[in-house]
Amino acid sequence: MQFSFLNLILIVAFATFKVNCSSDKDVNIIDAVTYGSSIKLQHISSKHRLHSHEVPYGQGSYQQSVTGYPKGDDPNSLWLVKAENGKTYKRGTPVKCGDEIRLEHVSTKRNLHSHNFKSPISSQQEVSCFGDKGVGDSMDNWKLICIPNKHNNDIWNRGAPVMLQHVATKKYLFAHKSNMYNPPLTNQIEVTAFDNADDAENKWKTAEGVYFPIQTAD
After folding, report:
1. Rounded Cα–Cα distance for residues 147 and 160 (Å)
2. What is the domain-level CATH number for residue 188?
3. Tens digits of per-residue pLDDT, 30-49?
4. CB neighbours of residue 112 within 10 Å
5. What is the C-alpha radius of gyration for the chain, rounded to an integer number of angstroms?
6. What would you measure as the largest C-alpha separation in the chain, in angstroms?
7. Is residue 215 part of a domain?
8. I need a labelling partner for 190 at 20 to 30 A (CA). Which of 29, 56, 120, 173 fits?
9. DSSP string, 141-168
């Protein structure tokens, strides 16, 4: 069996999970999510992970589709945490509540994106993946909104509930388990952007991933 360079990276990364990564069972909620980490985001209500793949939408933008995936073992649910479009931060810098960030899909190097197209199931605002080799545009920016809890320290804590607000359109990353795709996307749910800030279906948390430890400034 032949392995690509990406396969090799993922094998090494997953082999280090017990040391560097957190799961639903052993998450340390006080640890910070840092720039440069590759994470999985779990939709709290449905338990699905934010997911993408080389499958374009059949309508709307025709860009790379984004779904919620029911299992935690698929590498297509890994996202690289980056600064907003046009900025960079040192790897290991904690992500602060209120930061504008980008999430780059590790497998395809396209950024989580939204725009004024209708989603295929619910006709809400479409969420897609866009760009080339991590380069996209300002429609890739998402504002991190931390939901108050006893562990808040003005930084994004692993396992803590958060919302992601699309900066340009002010809508929130959303999913609902009733919006289920038919084959070939069996058991996957639609992911959209929704304008109700108080909706419980806007809430996400970090799950599995490769987390870089906090690095102090030089």
Report:
1. 8
2. 2.80.10.50
3. 589 999 999 999 999 999 99
4. 28
5. 16
6. 51
7. no
8. 29
9. -EEEEEPP-TT-SSB-BTT--EEEEETT
